[in-house]
Q: What sequence folds into this?
């Protein structure tokens, strides 16, 4: 059992090593097998470990394995050690399975690319780092995975490195997330200085014992960790890197947005839920940030023309929902939405990537159209994804995962009407932008003919993901509809159940209301984007639409606030102001040289007079003394 | 005697290289590698003994040298010097190997100087007699001056002069301080000696202690270097030949750090405690200012040089935190920075050999031409920004965490350096290897010799990042010894009650000491 746990992250890392060292020498076939196979094996191992875990759930709730002692200095000890509980199991499952499908898809998607083996090397490293992150037994090892994920996102966003813009997007992602990470490492220091350990389970145990709820140190530490989560999960105010991150190949976007990276923040908060529960202010902040982000990203998505940018903003928005859920203490709802989101977002990016590929790198949805007839299978899967994203009632998994979040944002003991209003508005926006995309790109007249039809390696993963996006929700049904709680009963082995207000409303009423909103969203999208496109055309170029397109101008703001001053500061002092110390000394010496040089002029009269004056001065001094 | 052999072997190698170099270019290289190789093997044998002995000197050699002034040839090895010497000899070999094609003129004299510098460094890491220490300290200087001045790039003369003046002037201040210490100790105890173990117990009034310490500090801080005394470094690093830059960055700077740990802290505990807030502030200043300047450079080599200024800020920051974790971090930083920055200098040298420029605006898009070089550059840029899994992360983690215990503010400010490091490191990767190629360079990737060197360095930095235990274990007892004598002396002084106001601070540090041991 424990042996399998260690192998789960080890196999993709091994794949990375082989591809990195022998990559250029391998044929594409072999490189593809290694890249995809390693993640596949890891997925199988997760299944085996998961089965073992479920079998013995009544006895043990977590397994850990220590590989070797990593750092040991004074009282500081950290091991390379993994531990598996129901939370990390869910994450491992999503990372390896969705990751595997993305890898398989990439074999065909990237088949013409010159950096084929490099691509799979980075992808394997990405999956491996993410698995380390979710399996880490101590927070220092978690940080290792965390930074590894950051590195891989940098490498993959900038994968097509010849375009300077891609490099810019890649650096932006790395630097912005690193800003959050730096706050996070200070938070880790806080934890260590107080509890003298890095083991997450011990930390949580001690935090619970020694820190009272709402104490300043608990609030500060939780806030610092939250900064790390905000960076990785692209939440306000560190969200600006994600829309640009679509510069990488589409499978990379699928991996970043679905299985890895952006969900790391959700994991971090869930993993440290004991600490966060001790800081109610931070919890409220998480909920509010989530609510604001989901609205902001929802509006921004409406203004985009680029297919992948729409999806990118939708990710920010959906992660906002997860944060909202975390903030009101609906832990398992957040994790469930993470899983379902992984299915449909991977699907959307892969299907969208296929569209872009067959249209020869056309990203603008307004130049597409009528793809329903040209690419029927892609259309169907994309539609399934969009429906799930919009939380189409009853038949999609997205409904079953988003609905509890909306419900708990109101009914949780820390929920409020405002949070619910934000959530429901976001749900309307989500429907609007999803079906805007579907109606504009797939309906109407054909503008560009696809150059070819994608092959099986690409379509099979799409179909699998489409099935999961629709049917994946049936493992967790609300009390009003079926009352099945397979998922939450598993996750609640690790995470506490949500505390609900005594005077809650009726859940079914809320479900009805949100269903109506979603359906009306689809209808409005149908009217303004397909039936009477004049309506949408009229505000397409308006100021507000442009403002949405620019993501509320955050890039510009940060440019003025941070980038410009930093560049200015470095430019004015390129030659190092302290160097003037040296220049000053050498100038002073030269000056002294010249001054003294004057006295040595070779004129005998001058010398004689100097001597006389000197004697006179000395004599006067001696006499007067 | 074996410690003296370590130095003699290098000196003999230097002479042999000079003599054989008159006829043949190959012999000096072979002799240098052999001499360093023998030293390295000897040292590895010691390191197995190192783990068995605790808290004491592993090897101690003490014989009188100049009897009139009680100057002795006192060399001793403990965990700290052992680790530093392992770095010295292995990077020494690397520096010979990377000069194989680069240095073609006066090959014998080049290796003569190279081995002389390394002998000086070895002496510095081993000396326990302050006069002898000063002797070796100066011995590093002159051959390095030649190395830069003869085999350097365009502005070599100015750079070597600057280097010489800075180090010489600060070294003289140290000489004065050594003599002052000699007399203060002699006058108070009656025994005039330069011996470290004697001088470590010197009792002196606070003002005098501060004054004498500042003489030592001058030499060490210039060498480290600390902003604003760092200006010799970018020039010297940029103009030196690759081997020179490597030795400067990886080894010479470390003698300053070593001096702080070996001499400043144990001999002048209360003065260093007084200086600690300023020391930490200088460290933070160095980290941030060095990073800022690194970002502004267009000359790749100069950029890497400024990253050294930034990274060495962590060292001084850690030294003045006075706890075990920070000290382990300092030692790790010395090793990891030696390897990672050394590797970056080697990379710059390899690029310069191929495209004859260090201007980053002329580079760009080189990944497609030289992917292996690109990967190496990527790895060491990541090391430089402190990516977990590589040695520099452990160094920065331990340093920052140790400092965090002493001063939350300083540690948090220093953490900003992590962001700054990300920005300049990514700039290196982007400007050199990624983006559009500005000029169509047709260049060859690394050859076998270069690949072996790079692979060795990569392996070292990864092992340090994932399994740093050997270094921590070897250096640990020596660092504890330093801290023990530091806190011992402080509490003695406190008992004598000559400075009550300090009592609180001292007990705070003592508390953190005890805390560490638990």
A:
């Amino acid at each position: 059992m424990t042996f399998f746990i260690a192998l789960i992250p080890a196999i993709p890392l091994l794949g990375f090593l082989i591809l990195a060292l022998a990559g250029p020498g391998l044929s594409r076939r072999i490189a593809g097998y290694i890249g995809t196979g390693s993640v596949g094996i890891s997925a199988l191992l997760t299944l085996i470990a998961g089965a073992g875990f479920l079998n013995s759930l009544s006895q043990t709730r977590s397994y850990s394995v220590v590989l070797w002692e990593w750092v040991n200095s004074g009282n500081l000890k950290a091991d390379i050690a993994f531990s598996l509980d129901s939370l990390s199991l869910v994450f491992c499952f999503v990372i390896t399975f969705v990751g595997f499908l993305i890898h398989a898809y990439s074999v065909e998607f990237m088949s013409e690319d010159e950096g084929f083996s490099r691509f799979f090397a980075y992808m394997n490293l990405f999956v491996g780092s993410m698995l380390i992150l979710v399996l880490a037994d101590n927070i220092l090892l978690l940080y290792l995975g965390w930074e590894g994920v950051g590195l891989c996102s940098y490498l993959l966003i900038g994968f097509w490195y010849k375009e300077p813009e891609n490099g810019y997007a890649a650096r932006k992602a790395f630097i912005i997330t690193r800003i959050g990470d730096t706050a996070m490492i200070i938070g880790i220091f806080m934890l260590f200085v107080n509890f003298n350990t890095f083991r997450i389970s011990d930390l949580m145990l001690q935090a619970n014992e020694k820190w009272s709820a709402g104490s300043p140190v608990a609030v500060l530490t939780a806030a610092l960790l939250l900064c790390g989560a905000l960076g990785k999960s692209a939440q306000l105010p560190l969200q600006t890197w994600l829309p640009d991150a679509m510069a990488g190949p589409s499978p990379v976007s699928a991996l970043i947005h679905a299985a890895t990276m952006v969900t790391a923040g959700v994991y971090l908060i869930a993993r440290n839920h004991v600490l966060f529960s001790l800081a109610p202010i931070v919890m409220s902040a998480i909920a509010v940030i989530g609510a604001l982000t989901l609205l902001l990203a929802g509006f921004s998505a409406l203004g985009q023309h680029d297919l992948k940018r729409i999806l990118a903003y939708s990710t920010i928005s959906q992660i906002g929902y997860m944060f909202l859920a975390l903030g009101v203490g609906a832990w398992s709802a957040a994790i469930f939405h993470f899983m379902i989101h992984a299915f449909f977002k991977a699907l959307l990016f892969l299907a969208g990537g296929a569209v872009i590929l067959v249209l020869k790198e056309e990203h603008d949805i307004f130049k597409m159209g009528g793809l329903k007839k040209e690419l029927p299978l892609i259309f169907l899967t994309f539609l399934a994804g969009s429906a799930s994203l919009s939380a189409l009632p009853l038949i999609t998994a997205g409904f079953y995962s988003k609905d509890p979040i909306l419900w708990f944002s109101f009914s949780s003991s820390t929920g409020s009407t405002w949070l619910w209003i934000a959530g429901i508005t976001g749900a309307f926006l989500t429907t609007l932008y999803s079906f805007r995309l579907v109606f504009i790109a797939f309906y109407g007249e054909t503008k560009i003919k696809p150059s070819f039809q994608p092959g099986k390696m690409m379509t099979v993963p799409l179909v699998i993901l489409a099935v999961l996006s629709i049917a994946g929700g049936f493992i967790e049904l609300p009390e009003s509809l079926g009352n099945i709680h397979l998922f939450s009963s598993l996750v609640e082995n690790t995470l506490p159940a949500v505390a609900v207000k005594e005077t809650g409303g009726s859940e079914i009423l809320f479900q009805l209301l949100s269903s109506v909103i979603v359906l009306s969203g689809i209808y409005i999208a149908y009217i303004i984007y397909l039936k009477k496109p004049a309506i949408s055309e009229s505000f397409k170029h308006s100021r507000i639409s442009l403002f949405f397109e620019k993501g509320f101008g955050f890039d510009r703001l940060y440019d003025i606030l941070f980038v410009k001053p930093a560049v200015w500061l470095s430019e004015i002092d390129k030659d190092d102001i302290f160097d003037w110390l040296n220049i000053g000394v050498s100038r002073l010496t030269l000056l002294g040289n010249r001054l003294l040089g004057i006295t040595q002029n070779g004129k005998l009269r001058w010398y004689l007079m100097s001597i006389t004056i000197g004697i006179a001065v000395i004599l006067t001094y001696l006499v007067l003394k | 005697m074996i410690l003296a052999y370590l130095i003699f072997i290098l000196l003999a190698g230097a002479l042999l290289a000079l003599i054989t170099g008159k006829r043949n270019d190959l012999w000096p290289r072979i002799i240098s590698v052999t001499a360093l190789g023998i030293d390295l093997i000897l040292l590895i044998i010691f390191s197995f003994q190192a783990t068995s002995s605790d808290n004491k000197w592993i090897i101690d050699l003490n014989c009188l040298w100049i009897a009139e002034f009680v100057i002795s040839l006192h060399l001793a090895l403990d965990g700290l010097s052992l680790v530093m010497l392992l770095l010295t000899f292995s990077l020494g070999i690397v520096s010979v190997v990377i000069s194989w094609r680069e240095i073609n003129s006066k090959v014998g004299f080049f290796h003569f100087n190279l081995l002389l510098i390394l002998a000086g460094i070895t002496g510095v890491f081993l000396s326990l007699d302050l006069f002898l220490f000063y002797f070796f300290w100066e011995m590093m200087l002159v051959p390095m001056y030649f190395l830069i001045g003869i085999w350097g790039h365009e502005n070599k003369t100015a750079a070597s002069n600057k280097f010489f003046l800075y180090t010489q002037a600060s070294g003289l201040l140290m000489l004065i301080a050594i003599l002052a210490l000699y007399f203060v100790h002699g006058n108070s105890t009656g025994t005039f000696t330069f011996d470290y173990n004697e001088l470590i117990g010197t009792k002196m009034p606070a003002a005098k202690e501060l004054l004498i310490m500042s003489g030592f500090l001058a030499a060490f801080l210039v060498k480290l270097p600390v902003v604003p005394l760092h200006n010799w470094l970018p020039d010297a690093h940029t103009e030196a030949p690759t081997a020179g830059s490597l030795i400067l960055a990886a080894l010479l700077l470390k003698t300053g750090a070593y001096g702080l740990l070996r001499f400043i802290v144990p001999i002048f505990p209360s003065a260093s405690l007084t200086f600690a807030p300023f020391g930490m502030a200088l460290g933070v200043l160095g980290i941030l200012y060095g990073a800022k300047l690194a970002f502004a450079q267009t000359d790749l080599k100069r950029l890497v040089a400024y990253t050294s200024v930034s990274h060495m800020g962590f060292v001084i920051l850690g030294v003045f935190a006075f706890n075990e974790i920070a000290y382990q971090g300092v030692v790790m930083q010395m090793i990891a920075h030696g390897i990672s920055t050394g590797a970056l200098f080697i990379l710059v040298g390899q690029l310069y050999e191929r495209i004859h420029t260090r201007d980053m605006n002329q580079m760009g898009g080189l990944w497609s031409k030289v992917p292996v070089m690109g990967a190496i550059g990527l790895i060491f840029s990541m090391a430089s920004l402190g990516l977990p899994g590589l040695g520099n992360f452990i160094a920065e983690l331990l340093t920052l965490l140790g400092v965090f215990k002493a001063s939350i503010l300083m540690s948090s400010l220093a953490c900003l350096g992590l962001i700054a490091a990300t920005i300049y490191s990514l700039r290196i990767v982007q400007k050199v290897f990624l983006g559009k190629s500005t000029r169509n360079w047709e260049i060859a990737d690394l050859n076998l010799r270069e690949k072996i060197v790079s692979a060795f360095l990569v392996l070292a930095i990864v092992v340090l990042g994932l399994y740093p235990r050997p270094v921590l274990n070897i250096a640990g007892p020596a660092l504890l010894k330093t801290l023990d004598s530091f806190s011992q002396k402080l509490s003695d002084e406190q008992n004598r009650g000559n400075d009550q106001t300090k009592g609180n601070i001292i007990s705070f540090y003592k508390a953190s000491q005890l805390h560490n041991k638990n």
In short: The radius of gyration of chain A is 30 Å. The mean pLDDT of chain A is 86.
